[in-house]
Amino acid sequence: MSKAGRLVVLVSGSGTNLQALLDASADPAYGASVVAVGADRDDIEGLARATRAGVPVFVEKLREHPDRAAWDLAIAARIAGHAPDLVVSAGFMKILGAPTLEAFPVLNTHPALLPSFPGAHGVRDALAHGAKVTGCTVMLADTGVDTGPIVAQEAVRVYAGDDEAALHERIKTVERGLLVETVGRMAREGWTVNGRTVTIGGVR
Ligand code: GAR
C-alpha cells in the first residue's frame, strides 16, 4: 500500500487547488504537506502562493529544452530532488512523460466527470455538448490524456445561462474540497491500485 506524506504540487496558473492543499496541510493531523511547487512557466499566482507559504518552487519551461524528451527528464529530476511520496498535478497544463510517471505516483485533478470531456477544455466542452451535469475528477495519471484510474468524483449541475467562467468557478469550489479530502485520505490511509480500481484505506 502506498502512502503520501510528501507532496510536490505542479501548477500552471492561479493555484487555488494548491492553496487549498497548503491550507489543509497547515494542520499536522492532515497527514501530508507540500514540500515543493513546480511550474512550466513563471509569473503565475500559483508560484506566488507557494512562496508566500514558504514552500520552495521550481520552474521548468518546455521551450528551454531541445525537445519534449529533454523536458520530461528535466522536470522528473526537479521533482525527484524533493523526494515526494505523491505528485499532485493541480491545474498543470502539460502531460507528464514516462520519466515522472515511472518514478512517482501522480494525482491529477480535472474539471469534468471523466471519461467525458478530457483535455485542456473540460468545462467548455461540457457546455458545448449541452451536458446538464458535469463535475470534477481526481485520477491517477497515466501516459494518456486524463485516462488514468479514477480515485474520486463529484457532480456539479450546469445551470441555464452558465458561461465557461461561471461554471468553472462552481466546479472549482467543489474540486478543491474533493482534492483536499482525497489527498488527505490517501496520505493517512494509503491506497492500492488493482487494474482500474483505486482503493483508499481498504474501502472501495
Ligand atoms: C482546475 O479546475 C483544474 O481541474 C484544471 O485547471 C484548474 C486549475 O485551477 N485543470 C485542467 O483543466 C487540466 N486538464 P487552479 O489553478 O485555480 O487550481
Question: CA-to-CA gap between the ends?
Answer: 14 Å
How do the strands of the widest beta sheet line up side by side?
3-2-1-4-5-6-7
Bound molecules: glycinamide ribonucleotide
The coarse overall form would be: globular
List unreliable stretches of 5+ residues: none
Provide a count of the helices: 6
> What percentage of residues falls in helices of 4 or more residues?
25-40%
For the sheet with most strands, the description reads:
7 strands, mixed
Order of helices and strands: EHEHEHEHEHEEHEE
The oligomeric state of the chains shown is single chain
Class computed from helices, strands and strand pairing? alpha/beta
Strand content: 15-25%
- Tell me the number of strands: 9
Describe this structure in words.
The protein is an alpha/beta fold. It has helices at 16-25, 45-52, 68-80, 98-101, 122-129, 164-189; strands at residues 6-11, 33-39, 57-59, 86-89, 106-110, 133-140, 150-157, 191-194, 197-200. The strands form two sheets. It has a seven-stranded mixed beta sheet, with helices on both faces. Strands 8-9 form a two-stranded antiparallel sheet. Glycinamide ribonucleotide binds at residues 11, 13-17, 46, 90-91, 109-111, 120, 122, 172, 175.
Kindly summarize this structure in a few lines.
The chain has 204 residues and is α/β, with parallel strands linked by helices.
